[in-house]
Amino acid sequence: MAVPTDPVQKYPAPQTTITTLARPRGKMEPPPDHGERSYRGAGRLTGRKALITGGDSGMGRLPQSPTREGADVAINYFPNEEPYAQEDDEDVVTAD
Fold first, then answer.
1. Which of 11, 50, 61, 87 could be a cystine partner for 71, CB 3.0 to 4.6 Å?
2. Quick check: is 22 in a domain?
3. pTM for this structure?
4. Residue 54's domain spans which residues?
């Protein structure tokens, strides 16, 4: 009976090179629009409620969508993340 061969040893390893891409620095022109200015709701969620968990994770853009669609939004977050939650709250209020 033939002894199985290790496939790692059987085939040649591919040649790999590691390249890094330079990240652009500074402000983007024009600034990116994630829907803060351009998205217009159509009232699809009027009379509904939305609970956003992880509101302390910089997800401030997420609650804007249900708010603009007419939903009442509640954001849940950890007490030690209050500053981030306040930023998200400002974003939601301005989305109305």
1. 50
2. no
3. 0.50
4. 41-96
